[in-house]
Amino acid sequence: MSAKLLKDYSLITIGIILVAISVEYFFVPNNLAAGGVTGLAIVINHYMPFLTTGVLVLVMNLILFVIAFIFIGGNFGAKTIYASFGLSFVLWFIEKVLNPIALSKDLIIASIFGTFLSAIGMAIIFNVNASTGGTDILAKILNKFFHSDIGKSLLMVDFIVTLLAAITFGLDIGLYALLCVILNGLAIDRVIEGFNICKEVTIMSSKNKEISEYIIHKLERGCTLLKGVGGYTGDETVVLYAVLGRTEFIKLREFIREIDPKAFITVGEVYEVLGEGFKEFDNI
């Protein structure tokens, strides 16, 4: 296994552990069926308490994978299969070995912290181009047979789960579950953006040659030199453009401070960078 694959599977493992903790210590004890297969498992567990959440998630994922394989093909990817069944195993392990209890019975605290942990875990998994199966598979099936958008299909599935939660556990808990679904979607996007944030830097300096060499040879990043004309002076100038990671930008800033304190620098944040040295198009 390559170093990148090992890193990806390690990150997926961390992600599913965080999701499992949110489910077993915040959602299940408070009957918060916050969408997806795990939410549906919480509802079913209420009627069939002899079946644990982990076992239900495993059985439903198996059924969904079989149905999806028959009707929409088997293009799931090894990472998604690992994440799906890995989550089921971790849920089962926590239930059988650790005997989890609610870390808080306050529904607001359980909703916020459960969603926070779940969003971080899911974001880590999504960021390495994997998913935990379940809801995604249901959405793809709805998309194929009813021609609905994937995003709308996901929302529809989660809404049905929270509706079942409201019928099973009462309207208050159902509304809290719906709140978790909404917050989870927003939080996942924000966390993924945080993982991928880079610094977009433009520099005007008399030491552009030294700065570009530092970026290329020391930071091992590319940069572009753009010809420009000063709006006030009318003189020709050169603008250096580069996209860097956060730690790389800090190193560059210190280097520029040493060699040209009068340099003019603008810095912006970009939330996704594709191409050489960053995320490859094949990994989208």
UniProtKB/TrEMBL annotation:
GO terms for cellular component: plasma membrane. Its main location: membrane. The chain crosses the membrane at residues 9-27, 47-72, 79-95, 107-129. Residues 221-275 form the DUF2179 domain. It is a multi-pass membrane protein. It comes from the Bacteria. It is found in: Cell membrane. Gene3D superfamilies: 3.30.70.120. The keyword Metal-binding does not apply. Keywords: Cell membrane, Membrane, Transmembrane, Transmembrane helix. PANTHER family: UPF0750 MEMBRANE PROTEIN YITE, UPF0750 MEMBRANE PROTEIN YITT-RELATED. This is DUF2179 domain-containing protein. It comes from Clostridium polyendosporum.
